[in-house]
Amino acid sequence: MSNESRAGRERVRVLFVEDDPSVAQMYKLKLELDGYDVEVASDGENALAIAQDRPPEIIFLDIRLPKLDGFGVLEALRKDSRTRQVPVVILSNYSERQLVERGLNLGALDYLIKTQTTPAHLSRGLETWLKD
Fold first, then answer.
1. 47 near 75, Cβ under 8 Å?
2. b/e string for 56-93 if b means 16 or more Cβ within 10 A?
3. Is the overall model pTM greater than 0.70, yes or no?
4. What CATH topology corresponds to 11-127?
C-alpha cells in the first residue's frame, strides 16, 4: 500500500532488531519517512519482550545480537501464540548457506544480507512481505 492509501489508517508497526545503533538509525529513518512506525530493539531479550507485549506487523531481525541471538528470538516468536504469525525477515551480515537455511527453516519469511540491502530496498519489500 502506498503512502497515500495508508493515509487515514493506523501506521504499520515495524520492530527493527539491530545492535549497531548507526545501522538501526539508517533503516529506521527511511522506514519512518515512508510512513511506517518503527521501534528498535538492540538485543534479543528486549526484542522478544517488545514483540510479545505489542506484536508488530513485521519484524526485521539481525542474527548476531547480545543476550539472545536472532535464531533464539525467532524460535521463541514461533512458539508463542501471540507472535507465531508475525512475519520475520532476517537482515544479517552472515550469508553462509547453513545460516540462511536455518533462518528459513525456523520460520523467517526471507533472509537478506545487509551489504546487498539498502534501506530503500527494505522499504519497497515491506508491502510484499506484509501480503504473505
1. no
2. bbbbbbbbebeebbbbbbbebbeeeeebeebbbbbbbe
3. yes
4. Rossmann fold (3.40.50)
Burial (CB count <10 Å: 0-12, 13-18, 19+), residue 13: middle
The two most distant CA atoms of the chain are separated, in Å, by: 43
**Alpha carbon 36 to its chain's center:** 12
CB 47 within 8 A of CB 74: no
> Which pLDDT tens digit goes with each residue over 78-115?
999 999 999 999 999 999 999 999 999 999 999 999 99
Q: How far is CA 76 from CA 71, 80, 86, 106, 120, in A?
A: 9, 6, 12, 10, 29
pLDDT digits (tens, 9 = 90+) for 1-18: 444 444 445 789 999 999
How many Cβ atoms sit within 10 Å of the Cβ of residue 21?
Answer: 11
